[in-house]
Amino acid sequence: MKSFLTYSLLLLAFLQASAQANREIFFADVTIYVEGGKYYLTGSKGGSSGPQGFAILESKDLKTWAVPAKANDSLGMILTEGDHTFGTKGFWAPQILNDNGTYYLTYTANEQTVLAESTSLLGPYRQKEVGPIDGSEKNIDSYIFKDTDGKYYLYCVRFDKGNYLYVAEFDLKTGMINPQTLKRCFGQTEPWEATPNYKSAPIMEGPTVIKLDHKYYLFYSANHFQNIDYAIGYAVADSPYGPWVKYKNNPIIHRSIVGENGSGHGDLFEGLDKQLYYVYHIHNSSEKVGPRRTRIVPVEKEWDEKAGVFRFSVKGKEVIVPIMAEK
């Protein structure tokens, strides 16, 4: 009887875990925007069905998510292929920002960075003139940063026998960079950025930039996304253009810290509780990469008096597994 009870409890636990896994969120290259006491999550949809573009989810606690009640459709689409938007494939890595009441969505499609806008957070995001930000060559993973002096900068990835991070001054109104300011941030220099588990050209991607006490912090991912060692580190500079000094204890998010393979490419944000978090994706399982799963981890910020910079780390034992609300 005792063995039967034990078996029943184990089976119940397995079924509950399986049910939760089926409700997990499968967005990659993720970002979270915070407004009005709620969180809004979007990202690359990966292998999910439905139209090309981006969908959005809403939460009050980072744990349970749902399509917003005021969404444009049942899927929560905020940008759709062909609806006054650039791109026919490869809709990746979105970022939402607000400037004076206008919402902007920057994203990748057809290996080009794009800017669309809306009067509503929930979209639809469209373009007045359909086209990429800079069609002079391929570039992906756009992140728009507003400095304290009001100037905007576009961080993105450009290809040169690998993926490299670049920055340029950006005009939000015209949606164009100033090409004369375009500058590469840094190259592949550290062992963690090129582990042998998956051979590839140098890859640095998925930028997020914040400014604290006159210092600029650039968070980025390194290694190929199919590598189990896909991970996140950061670098510090006195200018949006660098020169950048990489944190000596990188990576700050890695499978050895958060316990799951392929942990990378996300976004840093401040929660409603004033806690910093980083949202990112992981591999689907130890056997396969996709569809990738979404994760959120608390970030600790500590002032280093001697160096005059903040040091960042994550609470690897407190990873949040966001799930869809039960219908």
Automatic annotation (TrEMBL):
Active-site residues, record numbering mapped to chain? D29 (proton acceptor), E205 (proton donor)
Pfam families documented for this protein:
Glyco_hydro_43
Which Gene Ontology BP terms does the record give? Answer: xylan catabolic process
Q: Where is the signal peptide?
A: 1-19
Tell me the domain of life. Bacteria
The record's InterPro entries line, in alphabetical order, gives: Glyco_hydro_43 (IPR006710), Glyco_hydro_beta-prop_sf (IPR023296), Glycosyl_Hydrlase_43_Enz (IPR052176)
CDD domains noted in UniProt = GH43_HoAraf43-like (cd08991)
Cite the GO molecular-function annotations of the record: hydrolase activity, hydrolyzing O-glycosyl compounds
Site annotation (Important for catalytic activity, responsible for pKa modulation of the active site Glu and correct orientation of both the proton donor and substrate): which residues? D141
Query: Which family is it part of?
Result: Belongs to the glycosyl hydrolase 43 family.
Q: What is this protein called?
A: Beta-xylosidase
- Recorded source organism is Spirosoma radiotolerans
